[in-house]
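Q: Is it fine to ask for two folds in a single conversation?
A: Yes, each is treated on its own. Send the first.
Q: Here.
A: Result:
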Amino acid sequence: MPLSALDVDAREHLRSDLEALEGVRRAVIDPDPLRIYLICDRAEGPTEMLVRSILARSGLAAADAEVHLSYLSAPEPRRRVRFVAARLTTPRTGRALAQVELEWGGQTYRDEVEGETGAAVELRLAAQATLRALEAILNGRMQFGLVGIKSFRAFDTDVVVVLLRTENVHALIGASLATGDPHRSAALAVLNATNRVLGNYLTNAELD
């Protein structure tokens, strides 16, 4: 029985049955000539056999319909170190402690740096704590040095800009919008600078 002979409700019911199959994201039915297009998550599994079974229950033989399956590509691995948190506490008078947490490969890395209080100094402490957490992720395979970090206003927007140097003296500049949490902004500025070179480096290191 050609699908064009089915009423609208029957067509919708068939589409719903097809999309209910595990791994099927979307079913598109072209009735004349009868073609069924399925977008699936993966190639594994008896998807086409199950589709044919559903069509048979609807009175459609194998010769009555063309079935076309396409598969979504596997997602690319995330290649950026993710910011988790940045905190600043004052353990005692005149001293500040910056703590930063980063995530890579499902694991959280934390580090901290202590120094004097003061807005400019505390920005630097947060940046240094971020770099230490990155060093833990890199396990000593790459080193970054903090040249400077500064908060200023540009184009009517407050930004935090950081300048880093790698061990081969390459300069890296990163920026982040300044928010109500300057220590978070400092950590994000560091990541903005370093993620440009770390993504492929860390991914390749995992494959070695």
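Q: Second one now.
A: Result:
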Amino acid sequence: MWDVEAAYGIRNPTAPDADMPKGTVDKKSAGTLFAHLADIRRGWKTAPLSLAERRALFMRFALDWDDMRIATREAVTDRAIRYRLERGIGKLASHLNGADYIDSYDDLEIAA
């Protein structure tokens, strides 16, 4: 997601083998990987993520660090990292779906 050239060289599973005769491609099922990458990249640039959420998401999904390693790096608990990851993914998904993000933890604060 963070490497702009990452999609180049990825094989399209719906494309025919190179030695097969050329034909038409079903436009409805082709290119979903590239569409997903474009959506995620746009969401990363435009979603209302906090710096802590961005850092946690980057370390988890770009660097493939586990929660404990991220927590050690950020000097917080692994629970705080899971919270940041959950909120970050929720905000990205809501933003890409054109909906407002509703934090399920906000209800806990009201009830407490």
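Q: Anything structural to flag on that second result?
A: Two points. The chain is about 55% helix and 0% strand. The chain has two domains: 1-46, 49-111.
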